[in-house]
């Protein structure tokens, strides 16, 4: 029998609401910090399959979440396409060379760089308790392209946005390359044991409506269609952070199975605007989880009540913060587990 999370992602409402948290395997956990101090930097951990599997399992052992999210990074795709990838201490990821002209074809692809990720999935899936869903993920083409073009993160993704306007053919070629690599990558994760996948479009909110249709909705729809054809029955979660009023169109037009809702969206509006039978994931503010207190309890109840008529996966509106107290996560889990809508 499918676990609670997988059942919900397939559109079946159960009495209990499943819960997992984006970035649940990470720096807020003392066991993760100890392992990182012992084993090295982020990328070294992500490409060491045994260590990455251990990190993926840490929050399952501590909290008993309904899903285990693969410990990796969205930028392994540019790395596999041939860009060099490293992480600057305190500053985040760097990619070289920056593709300010969109000329990705000069890169020398290195798909074997993804092999350790598939091994991480195999090791984790073998060690997971019964009923815990193994979740894989990748970055959506638009978000990945913003890093590839700029060579790093940026506040408004202006270099990628400008390139998309100025050289739409070149930018479309880059998006297509990312799209093809992402489909293959997610297929590899599924074949290694992943039971559902999430597409993170962390910078979807920076685009104008017509650009959103072209660079967010259309590539996501193509990836989802190819995955559904190749591996029927594996749910695809789409998470277009910052989509706002464009969220219903994203949910309808991409062909995804479930939609993630960020913390800026009113859950009551989302519950009305999204397709009635579509599973919804979200959408507690990560900063409220950090703050805690009665406001946290009240908001958890409000989110649960808002989505009571949808198949609902309780989650945050984005990743859990590094300084979030363990006790607040425990409080959240108890509140969700005790909820009966």
What does this structure look like?
- The chain is α/β, with parallel strands linked by helices.
- The protein contains 15 helices and nine strands.
- It has a single domain (11-257), classed as TIM Barrel (Alpha-Beta Barrel), CATH 3.20.20.210.
- Strands 1-4-5-6-7-8-9 form a seven-stranded parallel beta sheet.
- Strand 6 (236-240), helix 11 (247-253) and strand 7 (258-261) form a beta-alpha-beta unit.
- Helix 6 (115-127) runs parallel beside helix 9 and helix 7 crosses helix 8.
- The longest helix is centred in the middle third of the chain and has 25 residues, at 168-192.
- The relative contact order is 0.14.
Main attributes?
two-stranded antiparallel sheet, TIM Barrel, 15 helices, 9 strands, alpha/beta, 13% strand
**Strand order, biggest sheet?**
1-4-5-6-7-8-9
Unreliable sequence segments: none
Strand content: 5-15%
Average pLDDT, rounded to a whole number, is 96
* Biggest beta sheet summary: 7 strands, parallel
Shape: globular
Radius of gyration: 19 Å
Under the CATH scheme, which class? Alpha Beta
List the secondary-structure elements in sequence, H or E.
HHHHEHEEHEHHHEHEHEHEHHEH
Category from helices, strands and their pairing? alpha/beta
Topology-level CATH name = TIM Barrel
Please identify, by name, the CATH architecture.
Alpha-Beta Barrel
**Distance N terminus to C terminus?**
23 Å
Question: How many separate domains make up the residues?
Answer: 1
> How many separate helices?
15
The total beta strand count reads 9
Helix percentage: 40-55%
